[in-house]
TrEMBL record:
PANTHER family on file: OXOGLUTARATE/IRON-DEPENDENT DIOXYGENASE (PTHR47991)
Listed PROSITE patterns: FE2OG_OXY
Keywords: Iron, Metal-binding
Coiled-coil portions: none
Name assigned to this protein: Fe2OG dioxygenase domain-containing protein
Cited InterPro entries: IPNS-like_FE2OG_OXY, IPNS-like_sf, Oxoglu/Fe-dep_dioxygenase_dom, Plant_2OG-oxidoreductases
Pfam families in alphabetical order: 2OG-FeII_Oxy
Organism (species): Gossypium gossypioides (Mexican cotton)
GO molecular function: metal ion binding
Fe2OG dioxygenase domain boundaries: 1-115
């Protein structure tokens, strides 16, 4: 589909139809990201750098939404579902969401790890009760 779009855009500017696709090369980077809030991260560990001035991250604590306070330049460590599974739920993967406001831009940077795609994970044996 993207090839059709790139060709159509090139044609609309009276360019040769492969003008744009040629610049993307033979192995262009394709990315898809599904954003849905609220969620818990699927990661092992997520490290988040929040906006220095505009809050927005909220987590569920004791059944209520609370806003995570801003600490400029602090890295927030959030555990994801994979750590919850491996720790047999001793570590929790909190449900959270990012709420926006109508007038201020907000940026956040998230970095996370996950187990290898085909790797099966499970609770550590020593953490399982009989
Ligand atoms: O923007 C935020 O503060 C949260 C981002 C987030 O939840 C995520 O990347 O998984
Ligand atoms: Fe998240």
């Amino acid at each position: 589909m993207k090839d059709l779009l790139l060709k159509a855009m090139a044609k609309s500017l009276d360019l040769e139809e492969n003008s744009f696709s040629g610049q993307f090369g033979d192995n262009p980077v394709m990315q898809v990201r599904f954003n849905f809030y609220p969620h818990s991260d699927r990661s092992g560990v997520t490290v988040l750098l929040q906006d220095e001035e505009v809050e927005g991250l909220q987590i569920v604590k004791d059944g209520a939404w609370i806003t995570v306070p801003l600490i400029p330049r602090a890295l927030l460590v959030n555990l994801g579902n994979q750590m919850q599974i491996m720790s047999n739920r001793i570590f929790k993967s909190p449900v959270h969401k990012a709420v926006t406001n109508t007038d201020k831009p907000r940026i956040s940077v998230a970095m996370s790890n996950e187990a290898e795609v085909d790797k099966e994970i499970g609770p550590m044996e020593a953490l399982i009760d009989d």
